[in-house]
């Protein structure tokens, strides 16, 4: 028994030593692969140390007091081994998850590196394009300096040519006046002869036309008399036939109508009796319904009146705002008048027109014109709101009138039942007209007067602004005419330069080159913006994946990994 127990103990010790060595090897491998599982490793090391201590105790035992303690230690070792196996399985699972995350992150790293290369290449290309643009701009400036010198030379030549042309033009004007006087005398003589001949020809043609017309008129009169006599005979015959036929049909129709009238009288008496009974029932029901509707209509009328009052107050507020805008515009116009007076005094003292101030005044006038247009649109909007309020007032008045007519009908039901339908209809129409007259004479008249007053004020303000703008425009035209007399020579020189073929070709080339480079710049900006958007989308996708991975690791109980140093090196941290 002692030998068998010893053998068993030696086997168990050997197994425990094998398991401990395997745990050590797994622990070393895990520590080499990742340093993220510190808690699990600490527990595993504690268990392995405990097992090692027990193994040393078993390999170098002291004389045991009894076999029960050995059995207890073996049981503890077995439980520790089961715990080690469970921890080892957890470590393997975590290692597999880490490998999966690494395999997912590797292609993302390669994509980021490729994108960085593309961005560096495109930035180099953009730098080259900017250098080329700068060179082209320098060349353009040189060409412009050359063209300015050429323009000065051409202007001097044109001035000399113009002086010569003026001398020759004066000589030609005298010769042209003499030739024109001779031509006028010849033309007058020829025209008088031609008019005399034309008068004779017209008199002859008129005489012939009159004779022809008299002949045709006589022939037409004879033909018309013949046709008129024939037509009268035919009409007399047809009239006699029609009279006979109509007498026969009238007699037949009278007999038929007498029969139908007798039948209709009987039918109408029956239907009238039925209608009277139905009307009595309907009137009784209507009395009950009208009492309910009367209370509802009162509440609706009060709410509609309050709403119309609010709308009218809003319209008056908008009109007041327009009035304030008109006052502000008047102050601006006064300032502009003062500026114009100051400019006129300066122009009279110095004798030269300031083109920039004229341009500013023109801009100010344009601004006032825009404000005038906006005020006009606001006035139209206010007018539209006022029309809408009028329509609502008319609807309310019609509802009120119908309601009061219904009430009056209920009160005087006994008197209306004794009337015929025509009498009832005329009575209702009279009541409606009376109610409309009362409404139009009371509140509606006051509202209409207020609204009309607002509209007239806005019209006066707008007409006043139009008159002031017209005065400013006249002043600007006078100043522009005074400045234009001094700028005639420069305009002629510029016109001659604009007609030169070489200058036009150079301008066309410069505009074409400038358009090409602007198109290239726009395309480059579009490409860069597209690449930025693409990188932003990819970055957001990567961050979402990393966030999902973090949440998955937190849900599994793993601590957060420390392997984000490569993102910090690439400049893609969460702080950005």
UniProtKB/TrEMBL annotation:
Residues 1-12 have a biased composition (Basic residues). Residues 77-118 form a coiled coil. Residues 30-39 have a biased composition (Polar residues). Residues 294-304, 551-563 have a biased composition (Basic and acidic residues). It comes from the Bacteria. Keywords: Coiled coil. Residues 1-45, 294-320, 551-576 are annotated as: Disordered. Residues 15-29 have a biased composition (Low complexity). This is Uncharacterized protein.
């Amino acid at each position: 028994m002692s030998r068998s127990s010893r053998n068993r103990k030696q086997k168990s010790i050997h197994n425990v030593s094998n398991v401990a060595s395997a745990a050590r090897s797994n622990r070393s491998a895990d520590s080499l692969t990742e340093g993220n599982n510190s808690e699990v490793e600490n527990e595993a090391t504690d268990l392995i140390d405990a097992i090692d201590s027990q193994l040393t105790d078993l390999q170098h035992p002291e004389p045991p007091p009894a076999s029960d303690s050995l059995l207890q230690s073996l049981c503890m070792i077995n439980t520790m081994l089961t715990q080690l196996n469970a921890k080892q399985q957890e470590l393997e699972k975590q290692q597999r998850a880490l490998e999966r995350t690494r395999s997912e992150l590797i292609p993302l790293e390669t994509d980021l590196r490729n994108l960085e290369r593309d961005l560096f290449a495109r930035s180099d290309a953009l730098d080259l394009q900017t250098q080329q643009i700068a060179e082209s701009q320098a060349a353009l400036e040189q060409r412009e300096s050359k063209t300015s010198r050429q323009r000065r030379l051409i202007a001097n030549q044109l001035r000399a040519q113009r002086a010569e042309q003026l001398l020759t033009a004066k000589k030609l004007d005298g010769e042209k006046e003499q030739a024109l006087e001779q031509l006028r005398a010849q033309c007058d003589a020829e025209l008088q002869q031609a008019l005399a001949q034309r008068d004779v020809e017209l008199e002859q043609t008129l005489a012939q036309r009159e004779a022809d017309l008299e002949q045709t008129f006589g022939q037409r009169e004879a033909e018309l008399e013949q046709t008129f006599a024939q037509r009268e005979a035919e009409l007399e015959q047809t009239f006699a036939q029609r009279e006979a036929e109509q007498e026969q049909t009238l007699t037949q129709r009278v007999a038929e109508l007498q029969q139908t009238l007798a039948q209709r009288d009987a039918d109408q008496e029956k239907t009238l009796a039925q209608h009277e009974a139905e009307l009595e029932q309907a009137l009784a029901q209507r009395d009950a319904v009208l009492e309910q509707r009367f209370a509802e209509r009162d509440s609706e009328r009060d709410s509609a009146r309050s709403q119309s009052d609010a709308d009218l107050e809003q319209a008056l507020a908008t009109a007041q705002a327009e009035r304030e805008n008109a006052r502000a515009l008047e102050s601006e116009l006064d300032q502009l008048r003062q500026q114009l007076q100051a400019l006129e005094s300066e122009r009279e003292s110095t004798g030269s027109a300031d083109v920039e101030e004229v341009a500013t005044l023109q801009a100010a006038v344009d601004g006032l014109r825009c404000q005038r247009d906006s005020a006009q649109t606001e006035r139209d909007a206010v007018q539209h709101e006022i029309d809408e309020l009028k329509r609502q007032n008319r609807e309310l008045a019609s509802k009120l009138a119908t309601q009061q007519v219904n009430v009056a009908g209920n009160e005087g039901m006994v008197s209306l039942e004794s009337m015929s339908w025509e009498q009832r209809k005329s009575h209702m129409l009279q009541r409606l007209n009376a109610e409309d007259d009362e409404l139009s004479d009371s509140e509606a008249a006051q509202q209409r007067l207020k609204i009309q007053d607002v509209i007239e004020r806005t019209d006066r303000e707008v007409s006043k602004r139009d008159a002031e703008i017209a005065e400013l425009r006249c002043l600007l035209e006078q100043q522009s005419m005074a400045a234009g007399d001094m700028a005639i020579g420069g305009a002629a020189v510029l016109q001659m330069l604009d007609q030169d073929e070489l200058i036009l070709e150079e301008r066309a080339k410069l505009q074409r080159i400038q358009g090409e480079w602007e198109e290239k710049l726009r395309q480059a900006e579009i490409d860069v913006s597209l690449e930025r958007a693409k990188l932003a989308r990819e970055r957001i996708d990567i961050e979402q994946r990393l966030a999902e991975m973090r949440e998955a690791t937190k849900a599994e109980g793993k601590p957060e990994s420390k392997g984000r140093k490569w993102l910090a090196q690439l400049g893609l941290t969460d702080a950005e």
